[in-house]
Design goal:
Phenylalanyl-tRNA Synthetase, Chain B, domain 3; Phenylalanyl-tRNA Synthetase, Chain B, domain 1; 4 domains; ten-stranded mixed beta sheet; seven-stranded mixed beta sheet; 17 helices; 30% helix; Phe-tRNA-synth_IIc_bsu_arc_euk
């Protein structure tokens, strides 16, 4: 989880009231894990789903509302004169949105917090800038007359030059990637010769998603800011933009938010979406396990609005979708330590599946290493590798956990990727669940990777399993992703297909980041009993 450090005096000015010496009960109600609480600083772990608490702006706002110092703010935006043209955006990173925030009052601590938020969002929600990255620019440095109209282009450039943020020397884009810390860290996200850049009136504002230009950096004198988000997943980008602009607004005594017309997307941003959830007290009671008094007041303490039979989540509360989320907020405000105690029902150890244990022992005896993976996985990766649409998570906290895997193959390839640098030959297996459209099934999967690995390597494992378990099988050539055509086979026991084996096509190995030739075997556990 993101670890955040804030100054207590900064929190007080954002909360608009004094904070008690022991903040822990309130911080716990906000789902924060306190690492250190001193006389001047607070360090805490924020849950991934509370992106608004990744910096002092959101935490100060939440504390102020919870303690009754201020009302939950309502953020609205008006149409501005800044436009963002994305019609020439690079195809591999095609989306960009923008927003304008006016009348800021910044100091060193405010700037530190905003850049902390920018980075935490890009890591936690952007998968280290791969699907979302954020940029901030001083509009008055870009053009003092920007309010009369300004067009910013997000486009692909074959080359460019700028002074990178934090440097004094002008560099080419290629030099930015080779010589700067951020260039070395994130350069793999950029295709050379197709550089994603923000440009206005012939001036290069940034090389996205690497570094902004020093000329337009945000500092203590900045009053008006242009915010951009670029990436590959529009819905996540729009949520992150809402969090960023509402946090910036906390640094202004008179915040003004302006929408930016996005040419090429037929929309204006930020969206500033207020999400309504029906306030079903019976559903909240079922989730909580008992009836809470004054649910409306508890939800207001957590920063939600209550409008009749609806609870309304502000734009920065991107974690609220259902009555389960309302119950969680109400319980947090009520205090989990106040929940009535009751005796737990009798429990037992549960049943143990000895056959699965037996499969693991067989494969271990063959010299394979067992791996354990989550059933949650990157949904886009599954679609790219297998060509099937997995069961998706409604509100994923991370892109890497956005779907339920329908096969062990993607998980096994990720395991190979993780171990290929340490081992010249990777031999791993997993006995684990997969989730299909209508059921959950258990599979056993094997991956072997190395310089001279072929179909024969996993074929030998299959033969060993058949001899030990006492079944006969036949192989029938199949054409199926992610295997090389002519180098894949269905495994047939009796008249039933029970699995598949094959050599993974180099194209799909590259998508995962596997550098070794790899063969995979996957079998249905129930068919082997």
């Amino acid at each position: 989880m993101p670890v955040v450090t804030v100054k207590l005096w900064d929190l007080e000015r954002l909360a608009r009231g004094p904070l008690s010496e022991d903040l822990r009960p309130v911080l716990e109600a906000l789902k924060l894990e306190v690492e250190e609480l001193g006389t001047e600083e607070l360090t805490y772990e924020a849950p991934h789903d509370r992106a608004d608490l990744f910096s002092a702006e959101g935490l100060g706002r939440a504390l102020g509302v919870f303690l009754g110092y201020r009302e939950p703010p309502r953020y609205e935006a008006e149409d501005g004169r800044v436009k963002l043209d994305i019609t020439r955006a690079p195809r591999y990173r095609p989306y960009a949105f923008g927003a304008v925030v006016k009348n800021l009052e910044l100091d060193d601590e405010a700037i530190r917090q905003l850049f902390q938020l920018q980075e935490k969002l890009a890591i936690s929600y952007g998968n280290k800038r791969e699907i979302v990255s954020i940029g901030l620019y001083d509009l008055d440095k870009l053009n003092p007359r920007w309010e009369e109209g300004l067009v910013i282009e997000y486009k692909s450039l074959s080359e460019g030059r700028m002074v990178p943020l934090g440097y004094s020397e002008e560099m080419t884009f290629e030099e930015v990637l080779e010589r700067t810390e951020k260039g070395k860290e994130y350069g793999h996200l950029v295709v050379k010769g197709q550089y994603p850049a923000f440009v206005s009136e012939g001036k290069i504002m940034s090389l996205a998603p690497i570094l902004n230009a020093e000329d337009y950096k945000v500092d203590e004198n900045t009053k008006n800011v242009f915010v951009d988000v670029t990436g590959t997943v529009p819905e996540v980008m729009l949520r992150v933009l809402d969090v960023m602009v509402t946090s910036l607004a906390e640094r202004s005594p008179r915040p003004e938010l302006q929408r930016v017309e996005v040419i090429g997307a037929n929309m204006k941003t930020p969206r500033l979406k207020y999400r309504k959830v029906r306030l079903d007290k019976e559903a909240i009671k079922r989730v909580a396990g008992f009836e809470l008094e004054d649910v409306e007041g508890l939800l207001r303490k957590m920063g939600l609005f209550v409008e009749g039979e609806w609870a309304v989540a502000p734009p920065y509360r991107i974690d609220v979708f259902s009555e389960v989320d309302l119950a969680e907020d109400a319980l947090s405000a009520y205090g989990y330590n106040k929940v009535p105690a009751e005796a737990l029902p009798p429990t037992h150890w549960g049943s143990r599946d000895y056959f699965k244990d037996y499969l693991a022992r067989i494969l271990t005896s063959m010299g394979l290493e067992e791996v354990f993976n989550f059933a949650l996985i990157d949904g886009e990766l599954v679609e790219e590798l297998l060509g099937v649409e997995p069961v998706k998570v409604l509100n994923p906290r991370l892109k890497s956990y956005s779907a339920l895997r329908p096969s062990l193959v993607p998980s096994l390839l990720l395991a190979v990727k993780q171990n290929q640098e340490a081992l010249s030959r990777v031999e791993v297996f997993e006995v684990g669940p997969v989730v299909l459209k209508d059921k959950t099934a258990w599979r056993v999967g094997v991956a072997v990777a190395g310089d001279k690995v072929t179909l024969t390597d996993v074929g030998a494992v299959l033969k060993g399993l058949a001899l030990t378990l006492g079944f006969r099988y036949a192989l029938e050539e199949v054409k199926v992703r992610p295997f090389i055509e002519g180098r894949a086979a269905a495994v047939i026991v009796g008249d039933k297909v029970v699995g598949v084996m094959g050599e993974v096509h180099p194209e799909y190995l590259q998508k995962v980041g596997v550098e070794l030739p790899t063969a995979v075997l996957e079998l249905d556990v129930e068919a082997l009993r």
